[in-house]
Design goal:
The chain has two domains: 4-96, no CATH class; 101-465, Regulator of chromosome condensation 1/beta-lactamase-inhibitor protein II (Methylamine Dehydrogenase, Chain H), CATH 2.130.10. The model is unreliable at 1-74 and 77-97 (pLDDT under 50). The chain is mostly beta strands. It has strands spanning 4-8, 14-15, 25-27, 33-37, 62-66, 72-76, 82-87, 90-96, 100-108, 123-128, 136-141, 145-150, 155-159, 175-180, 188-193, 199-204, 209-213, 228-233, 241-246, 250-255, 260-264, 279-284, 292-297, 301-306, 311-315, 330-335, 343-348, 352-357, 362-367, 381-387, 395-400, 404-409, 414-418, 433-438, 446-451, 458-465. β7 (82-87) and β8 form a beta hairpin.
């Protein structure tokens, strides 16, 4: 058995177990493997020998490694490179997991600057959002505007500014590059953008929910119907909101206690409160369930998943978008048919739905006139889930738009199908697709995807090793 002692590193170098420091780490046992992730801003004073001091600086990507004999060796770790350190009769491997750069890419219609690339020219393949930021953590695509959050907790917007949907204290003046959402908050963690006239929703790490933009039907949840050009708090006093989703003139959200809430326009029963009356403040989705785990608002209907693995839907049911083998409206949750109890994510589009199971298989239902169901069947509607073709069993994230669909696989590739006007599928063409095609670029590091309920731009984040 080989034991390697005194692996000296500053406190901002993390081990895979997320401990704060790797100082004086002892690795023993038959495996003798320690994984170390280098921080991007390495600095500090380190000893040059065991028990000695003197080195005042070192380069990003370097680690001081010592053994029981007492000497320390400064070793440069290269991204993706494994280094074997020999100690007496054995060896230990230090696997370097490099820091990542998180950049936003966009494609599709760009008439209002929605792609954030400082132009108003539509693109049929991904282009980088300007600004030089490489720490994006969440994105949202709305009707002619885009939203995003950085890891420093700031929120940003670009595109059409009418009705205050950008949250930058204006109601006019389109912007084609990211501008900061006002308020001075540095703890935004999740964001959502709506279709049509446009409203925006976001959650802060303190569990409060906020909204801005158009408010004619109470979709901001602040007990008024007046539009706001800067964030206002959703009423109710709750400080445990954990997920939020903006639909067509309505909003849905989950709290940490597993309850689901909704507010805004309620035609067709899209709020799920057993009424069709508009609400300007949050009301509970009926059913008494306290185990909702994920929710998604579409144009005029909602989808959600419970921790039981069952999927549910409510609101407009035409074209079979609720997935309950019917086409009638429902003002309270009904179960998506199929008998599956392993749904893990759902996405509500304009008139179709996507659902992902834990086995990595992707399903779709609803209106498929532009191929957005992805079942190679052409112009047809489905009132119950059908499998998206391709035979893939490693889908991990989905996003349903107006007439288009997107899916991310665990191998980091991104796929699209459906309506392709203005190149919104990102495959370098404007040809409609009824089965998944790869988004161009050859990238295998896609991290997050968001498409618009109104058939506009698509946004995605790549996680690229630095």
């Amino acid at each position: 058995m080989t034991t390697l002692t005194s692996i000296i590193a500053p406190s901002n170098i993390l081990t895979t177990s997320n401990t704060a420091t790797a100082t004086n780490k002892t690795v023993s046992g038959a495996n003798n493997t320690l994984n170390v992730r280098m921080a991007n801003d390495v600095s500090g004073t380190l000893p040059t020998t065991n028990g000695g001091a003197g080195q005042t600086s070192y380069t990003d990507g370097q680690l001081l490694i010592g053994n029981t004999a007492g000497s320390l060796t400064k070793t440069t770790l290269t991204a993706g490179c494994n280094i074997a350190i020999t100690n007496s009769g054995g060896s230990i491997t230090i696997a370097y997991d490099p820091p990542l750069s998180y950049s936003i890419y966009a494609w599709g219609p760009a008439s209002s600057g929605t792609l954030g690339d400082n132009t108003t020219v539509s693109k049929s393949s991904p282009v980088s959002v300007v600004g030089g930021f490489t720490d994006w953590s969440d994105v949202a695509s709305g009707y002619a505007f885009s939203l995003a959050v950085r890891t420093n907790g700031t929120a940003w917007a670009w595109g059409q500014a009418n009705n205050g949907k950008l949250g930058n204290n204006t109601v006019a003046g389109d912007v084609s590059s990211p501008v900061s959402v006002v308020g001075g908050f540095t703890d935004w963690c999740q964001i959502s953008a709506s279709a049509s006239t446009g409203h925006s929703l976001a959650v802060r790490t303190n569990g409060t929910a906020w909204a801005w933009g158009y408010n004619g039907q109470g979709q901001l949840g602040d007990n008024t119907t007046a539009q706001k050009s800067s964030p206002v708090s959703v009423v109710g006093g709750f400080t445990d909101w954990c997920q939020i989703s903006a639909g067509l003139a309505f909003s849905v959200a989950l709290r940490q206690n597993g309850t689901a809430w909704a507010w805004g326009v309620n035609t067709g029963g899209r709020l799920g409160d057993n009424t069709t009356v508009n609400k300007s403040s949050p009301v509970s989705v009926v059913g008494g369930f306290t185990d909702w785990s994920q929710i998604s608002a579409g144009n005029n209907f909602s989808l959600a998943v419970r921790t039981t693995g069952t999927a549910w839907a409510w609101g407009y049911g035409n074209y079979g978008r609720l997935g309950n083998n019917c086409t009638g409206n429902r003002s309270s949750p009904v179960s998506v048919v199929g008998g599956f109890t392993d749904w893990c994510q759902v996405s509500a589009g304009s008139q179709h739905s996507l659902g992902l199971r834990t086995n990595g298989v992707l399903y779709a239902w609803g209106y498929g006139h532009q191929g957005q169901i992805g079942d190679n069947a052409g112009v047809v509607q489905r009132s119950s889930p059908v499998s998206v073709v391709g035979g893939f069993t490693d889908w991990c994230q989905v996003s349903a738009g107006q007439n288009d669909s997107f899916g991310l696989r665990t191998n980091g590739t991104l796929w699209a199908w459906g309506y392709n006007s203005s190149g919104r599928l990102g495959d370098g063409t404007t040809t409609n697709r009824s089965s998944p095609v790869s988004v161009v670029g050859g990238f295998t590091d896609w991290f997050r995807i968001a498409c618009s309920l109104k058939g506009n731009q698509t946004l995605a984040i790549r996680a690229t090793p630095i």
